[in-house]
Specification:
By secondary structure, the protein is of the alpha+beta class. It is 42% helix and 16% strand. The N and C termini lie far apart (44 Å).
Length: 163
């Protein structure tokens, strides 16, 4: 994990990822948002869609990689940056490596399932052809708020159902 000074652009783009997380929460998806930038422009933006899409593959990062690849017209996203509100899982970390994303900025570490440095480190495996060091903790409190608010809502709903 890296403690870096982030730029104003980084804050802007993470804010956009948080906006996507809020959209996910509104449709009762786990609120994880993701944007991918190229030449300081957002070329892909999305959020989790696993429950509504009925697919374990519809994580925000995977959907964003698909959109960015269509925009670039190539699977190689070598000059792109991904901003994601929560640390990617192993599936998404593998996709990030295979798409050759240049930079990965993460809001909130996931110590249970994260695969970019907090639990395991698929993205930082230097024995691989492509690797990158994830940059953590950009707008961490805001990202944590989205996750906590979502699960609190679910717990409260379940309490009401149990009565």
């Amino acid at each position: 994990m890296t403690d870096l000074n982030f730029s104003k652009k980084d804050y802007f783009f993470m804010n956009e990822a948080i906006y996507e997380a809020r959209l996910a929460r509104l449709i009762e998806e786990v609120p994880i948002g993701c944007v991918i930038t190229f030449e300081d422009k957002i070329i892909a933006r999305t959020h989790n869609y696993t429950f509504k899409g009925k697919s374990a593959l519809k994580h925000a990062e995977i959907l964003a990689i698909e959109k960015a690849s269509a925009y670039i017209d190539d699977f190689r996203l070598e000059d792109c940056t991904m901003y994601v509100t929560m640390e990617p899982c192993s599936m998404c970390a593998g996709a990030i490596i295979n798409s050759r994303i240049k930079r990965l900025v993460i809001g909130l570490a996931d110590y249970k399932r994260g695969a970019c440095g907090s639990n395991t480190n698929i993205t930082g495996d230097r024995s691989q052809l492509h690797y990158l060091d994830a940059e953590f903790s950009l707008m961490e409190d805001e990202c944590l708020y989205e996750i906590q608010t979502f699960f609190k809502m679910l717990r409260n709903r379940n309490k009401i159902k149990d009565k």
